[in-house]
Amino acid sequence: MDNTDLLYRRAAGRSADEQATTRGWTRSKRGRLRSIGLVVAIVASSASSSQPAGAEVDVVPAPLGQTMATDARGTCPIDYTCTGVAVFCDEVPGLVATVALKFPTDPAVPTRGLVLFVTGADGVVFYSGLDPSMTESGRVMDDIRNQGFVVAQFRWDSPGWQTSPIDQPNGPATQACLPATVMSYVHDTYFVPLGITRGRRKCGFCVTGNSGGGSVLGYALARYGLDPMIARAVLSSGPTHASLTKGCYSEDGYKYATDNRRHIDLTYGFADDTSLGPCNQRDPAYADEFERDSLVSSTVAGDFAHPDTAVTMVMGELDSDRWHNMAQLYEDVLVGAGTIATTVVVPGAGHNLRDTPAGMGAIRAALLNPLAPPSGG
Fold this sequence. Notes:
24% of the residues lie in helices and 23% in strands. With 377 residues, the chain is an alpha/beta fold. The protein has a single domain, classed as Alpha/Beta hydrolase fold, catalytic domain (Rossmann fold), CATH 3.40.50. Helix 1 (136-146) runs parallel beside helix 9.
């Protein structure tokens, strides 16, 4: 592809003055750089540890990144169309995502919107797998397409969205700029041209994320200001990052497992040896960072008031208590801010809901079924 054909665009139309974030750096005892503060600008209100999580404050969203169209990478899922997008965020190395789309084909069915599916962990695989006809998630995605929705998904080049450069401890909230920017890119590039009026809590443009993919959806809403775009947000088996403080410091009912700690420590610049990372080591020197980067934080004011967005957590009955408790933390702060938020429990299901008919059925219902009328609105 000739460079003149590349599309270079700002993923969000916010001015630099509106994107107020500051960061300080110091050396930890291990000789690694670690962040000592992230200040999110609050308009007409000051956030402090006394500010209850979820209380209504006017939060200036963190800046999204920039995007540049490029070639798709790797193998595209069967019957999907793939394109590449390079994403560049402040303090985060550029990374290429491959976006896969499948469009409605029945002329008798009007196009109703776009549903975006986000995988968990590092995000380096497609939600449907490469042969969607062989996976439960792929079959349900095709059913949604047959009802008039464009279905979209994306995967990252290795090492994925979580890995911060060695000695650059960005943390997951900063790294989440990458997937949040792709969500915005898909909305602007593929949903907006459909000419569909955004519905209030009705697809429209809707997003579902599984496990860590639910966390990045939560960050996109609370830290990156995407709630005006997203009519329904469905977080399955998560959000896993609701409280890094509780998870990393092994609070009863929230204690992270070893692999969970590895994913957290990748975001703090320990890709060379995550066993030495602060979450794995329960390092008290990182208490400020863990609380700052928790989706539900007592020190950084996130925006949890989403009047036009319905949020659903879909949890497997047999999933770990830590994920049920993390989801409850998130639901409580959303409800406290006046957002329509609920949790659905799938009987007999575990963590990998996208692999089961009951799990995908619950996700599909949360995306598309009518909501009960909220009290007062």
